[in-house]
Model the fold of this input.
Amino acid sequence: MPKTLKNSKILKNSIRLRRFMADEMTQSALAKSVGVTRQTIAAIEAGKYSPSLELAFKIADIFELDLQVLFSYELD
Done:
């Protein structure tokens, strides 16, 4: 039987920080590198959209990070 979550969890990310650390990469540049729109990157950064697993890996690859360094699942 699956467990029920008592507290809600949300997907968090450090994309904005990583863009800043990568010579202040723009959302547009990141979006072009991974094949999505700038609006998609903005929505992911804001926590309004959860990326597909494939997209999450592509973004992590751009920053040469493990997925769990860039994304985390935390209590809201």
